[in-house]
Every structure is written in C-alpha cells, then in structure tokens.
Amino acid sequence: MAAQLVPLPEVERLSPRCIRILGGNPGKFTLQGTNTYLVGTGRRRLLIDTAEGKPAWIDAVRRTLAEEGASVSAALITHWHPDHVGGIGDLLALSPDTKIYKCQADADADAGAVAGAGGSTMADIADGQVFEAEGASLTAVHTPGHTVDHMAFVLREEDAMFTGDNVLGQGTAVFEELAVYLRSLARMKPLFKGRAYPGHGPVLEDGPAKIAEYIHHRAQREEQVLATLQSQRDGEAGAEVANGGTWTAIELVRVIYRDVREDLHPAAERGLLQILDKLEKEGRVQRLDGGRWKLKSTSAL
Fold it and tell me: Which residues form the Metallo-beta-lactamase domain (predicted)?
C-alpha cells in the first residue's frame, strides 16, 4: 500500500490560511502520517491535532511557528486516538499557554489530565462552537463514527472542512458503528462545498463529492453482503456453504473481497461485521450460533 501513496512534504502551505505539518509517523494505518494543521493568518493561530509525539513533529512545528512569527492559541483535537493526541505534551512544553480542546473532555478520563503536560486539563468542544483566529473561523461539528468523540471543523473562509478520520485523503475510513458513521457523513456533506482537509492523506479538492463516494461505497457493500447471503454457493470455490446456506463473516469476505490480498482479509472482516450488525438492527439479517449469519426471509433485496 505504501508504494501507492502520494508523496507529501513534511510541511506544506495549502492555502493562505492553512499549513499542513505531518506527524512524522507514516504507517499502514496512518498513511503518510497524521496531518496536523496550523490555521490562521495572524500571530495567534489555531492548531488541529497534535500527531503522536514523534520528535520530528514538534521540531517542524517549532520551525514553522518561527518562520511565520506565530504562536498557537488553541489546539483542537478531532478525536482521542494516540496518533492525534500524542504530541499534546510536547506542544505544551513549547507553548504552555496553548489551550487544548476536545469533545467530551469531562467524560474522558484520558483527557482529564494530559500525560507529560504537568497535569494540564482540557476544555470541552461543543457542537456548533466557533473558534476564531485572524483570517480563520472554525465551526465545530460533532461527527461520531470513527470514534464517539469525533469532531470535524468547517473553515468558513474557504467553505472547507477539516474532516479528521471520518474522511481520508486516500482509501476509506474505519469506524466504530456503521449506522452512526453514515449519519455523520450525511450531516457533514451539506455543510461545505469546497476542500476536505483530512486527518491522513492529501487534500481533497471536492470534499462533498468524496463523502458522497463514501456513502455510495458503503451502500454497495451492504448490497453485496445481502446478495451473497442470498446465494447458496460460495462464489469463489463453487462449494456448498455449510449449515444450510448460512455464512461466517470470513466466508463472506472471501467472496466479496476476492480481489483483495488475503493478508488484508482480517481488516475487511472487521468492517464486514459492522455491516452485519447494522443489517441485524434493521431486521434484514439474523445472527446464529457459532458466528454464522443468514438472510431473514422477510428481507427484500
């Protein structure tokens, strides 16, 4: 997968009011690394996310702030995953006056006191809250799906959105609960018309189009699951499926993801189980003993 990634520079000015600073943590799930964004045009700016604590990241932040003659007034956390919050301590060591914000800060024990930051506390982000810096106004949008505390931020001046990990610059996102994730995508799509600045990967010039693509992709996967469950044969091996045409998740993966490398099937299975859970809640499929699934007779394809 790494060979297919678009190369990204460590620091890049993406617009007059947005500079991307990579987290220095490329990998299988982080792509080119975590994107962090310095937002604004004046001396006091906003920072979105803090990567995972690699020395290269805080060094790049320090250099960029010096070149810009700027400081960070507030850091806005899209969600509490290590690759987005691990640099908080380093940021506060560099800039002790920076205020840290995250969704559900009061309810999250991890966010109550920042490790390595001298016991600094966080402030909560409310849905619809506006954060301002010279040249930039960001409106927070609670968009659970990738995580329950996930936030996106609409950049008014560019009609753009910082999408966190709900929408990526390359590939598709992972999520905790599919139905919740799809509701968030549907909410995000009409809120902007321009760019998506993702948590990983390159900028998407038409953010709403990418969200529509994500929604369509998930709908297609659901239809594939339903169609395969309806089948009485393993489409890949041509063998009868055991237990009266019922399927395990991995059996479904081997058919639906037959063109995907087998070492990626476990990840595909996790996503497919999310689809099955959603369909079960909708009364379209039935969960059986032994981790097997079948199409409910009342389901309509």
Answer: 33-200
Q: Order of strands across the sheet with 160-164? A: 130-133, 136-142, 151-155, 160-164, 196-198
Q: Are 38 and 72 in contact (CB under 8 A)?
A: yes
- Tell me, yes or no, whether 172 and 41 share the same domain: yes
Q: Which pair of structure tokens corresponds to residue 130?
A: 């506006």
What does the alpha-carbon distance between residue 39 and residue 133 come to, in Å, rounded to a whole number? 8
User: DSSP for 14-39?
Assistant: EETTEEEEE-S--BTTTBT-BEEEEE
Residue range of the domain that includes 276: 218-295
At 230-273, the pLDDT tens digits run 886 444 444 445 456 799 999 999 999 999 889 989 989 999 99
Q: How far is CA 227 from the centre of its chain?
A: 28
Burial class (CB in 10 A: 0-12, 13-18, 19+), 298: exposed
User: How far is residue 115 CA from its own chain's centroid?
Assistant: 23
What are the backbone angles phi and psi of residue 246, rounded to the nearest 5°?
Answer: -80, 160
- The tokens for 23 are 């987290």
CATH number of the CATH domain containing 224 = 1.10.10.10
Which single residue is written with the structure tokens 């990738």?
146
Residue 130, helix vs strand vs coil: strand
16 shares its domain with 122: yes
Regarding whether 166 and 137 lie in a shared domain, the answer is: yes
Cα-based angle 130, 135, 139 (whole degrees, multiple of 5): 20
SS3 201: coil
Mean pLDDT of 145-166: 97
Q: Tell me the three state secondary structure of residue 7.
A: coil
DSSP state of 160: E
| Domain total of the chain | 2
Q: Angle, to 10 degrees, between the axis of helix 207-230 and the axis of helix 178-188?
A: 150
User: 163, 180, 205 — which closes off a domain?
Assistant: 205
Predicted TM-score (pTM) of this structure = 0.88
- The C-alpha atoms of residue 69 and residue 128 are separated, in whole angstroms, by 30
CB proximity list for 174: less than 8 A, separation 6 or greater: 146, 165, 270, 271
